[in-house]
Amino acid sequence: MRLEEGRLRRMIGRELTESRPGAADETRTIAPEELEKTLVDLDIVLTDEELGALLKVY
Protein backbone atom coordinates (compact mmCIF):
# COMPACT_ATOMS: atom_id res chain seq x y z
CA MET A 1 0.00 0.00 0.00
CA ARG A 2 1.22 3.50 -0.76
CA LEU A 3 -0.49 6.63 0.51
CA GLU A 4 0.22 9.85 -1.35
CA GLU A 5 -1.38 13.27 -1.36
CA GLY A 6 -4.86 12.66 -2.76
CA ARG A 7 -4.22 9.06 -3.76
CA LEU A 8 -4.05 5.63 -2.15
CA ARG A 9 -2.65 2.67 -4.08
CA ARG A 10 -2.79 -0.88 -2.77
CA MET A 11 -2.04 -4.26 -4.24
CA ILE A 12 -3.73 -7.38 -2.94
CA GLY A 13 -2.88 -10.52 -4.83
CA ARG A 14 -2.80 -9.55 -8.50
CA GLU A 15 -5.18 -6.60 -8.16
CA LEU A 16 -3.91 -3.01 -7.93
CA THR A 17 -6.52 -0.56 -6.67
CA GLU A 18 -6.19 3.21 -6.77
CA SER A 19 -8.48 5.36 -4.65
CA ARG A 20 -8.91 9.12 -4.91
CA PRO A 21 -11.26 11.33 -2.90
CA GLY A 22 -14.53 11.93 -4.74
CA ALA A 23 -13.82 9.35 -7.44
CA ALA A 24 -14.67 5.70 -7.93
CA ASP A 25 -11.91 3.24 -7.13
CA GLU A 26 -9.98 1.97 -10.14
CA THR A 27 -8.87 -1.67 -10.02
CA ARG A 28 -6.82 -3.56 -12.56
CA THR A 29 -4.98 -6.85 -12.75
CA ILE A 30 -1.20 -6.66 -12.87
CA ALA A 31 0.38 -8.92 -15.49
CA PRO A 32 3.58 -10.80 -14.58
CA GLU A 33 5.67 -8.56 -16.84
CA GLU A 34 4.36 -5.48 -14.94
CA LEU A 35 4.97 -6.88 -11.47
CA GLU A 36 8.50 -5.61 -10.81
CA LYS A 37 7.75 -2.03 -11.92
CA THR A 38 4.49 -2.01 -9.98
CA LEU A 39 6.21 -3.16 -6.79
CA VAL A 40 8.96 -0.55 -7.21
CA ASP A 41 6.27 2.13 -7.71
CA LEU A 42 4.85 1.01 -4.34
CA ASP A 43 8.36 1.30 -2.79
CA ILE A 44 8.75 -2.48 -2.58
CA VAL A 45 12.17 -3.52 -3.88
CA LEU A 46 12.98 -7.21 -4.18
CA THR A 47 16.27 -8.90 -4.98
CA ASP A 48 16.46 -10.75 -8.29
CA GLU A 49 16.18 -14.01 -6.36
CA GLU A 50 13.08 -12.84 -4.46
CA LEU A 51 11.44 -11.54 -7.62
CA GLY A 52 12.17 -14.80 -9.46
CA ALA A 53 10.62 -16.84 -6.64
CA LEU A 54 7.56 -14.57 -6.57
CA LEU A 55 7.08 -14.80 -10.33
CA LYS A 56 7.12 -18.60 -10.14
CA VAL A 57 3.97 -18.56 -8.01
CA TYR A 58 2.42 -15.41 -9.52
Describe the structure.
- The chain has 58 residues and is of the alpha+beta class.
- 29% of the residues lie in helices and 31% in strands.
- A 4-stranded antiparallel sheet has the order 1-2-3-4, with no helix packed on it.
- A hairpin with a 2-residue loop joins strand 2 and strand 3 (15-19).
- It is elongated and about 40 Å long.
- The model has no long low-confidence stretch (mean pLDDT 95).
Short description:
The chain contains two helices and four strands, in the order ββββαα.
Per DSSP, the total helix count is 2
The chain-level mean pLDDT equals: 95
Residue share in β-strands: 25-35%
Q: Order of strands across the biggest sheet?
A: 1-2-3-4
Helix fraction by DSSP (H/I, runs of at least 4): 25-40%
**Are there runs of 5+ residues with pLDDT below 50, and where?**
none
Radius of gyration: 12 Å
The H-and-E topology, N to C, reads as EEEEHH
Number of strands: 4
Distance between the termini: 18 Å
The main pleated sheet reads as: 4 strands, antiparallel
Supply the helix-strand structural class.
Answer: alpha+beta
Name the shape in a single word: elongated
